[in-house]
Predict the structure.
Amino acid sequence: MIEPIKVERFVLCFFILTLLTMWLNWFRFINIWCHLRTILDYLENLPIRTAFKRLPHEKSLPILQGSSSPGTFLLRQVLDRVRALAYVDPSAKPLRNQFA
């Protein structure tokens, strides 16, 4: 039969170990967040940040558009490729495959 005092000590040790693990992970999270925040502050001050504001809304990523479905992005890709093919000069010599 298992003695109650041994079970109590085991549970107490397990509980203390769990609290210690959570405490260490919390400080690890805070440390990573502080370092990441300095990186994000640096990126915020780069001039390329303003370039993204000048992009047209249609070219933005679909992940930023909460209501768009996955099929609309594929449709845009297909339409862009069809438009690009419309501008190809059919009299131009075809490019040879460089990897063959």
In short: The mean pLDDT is 75. The chain is about 65% helix and 0% strand.
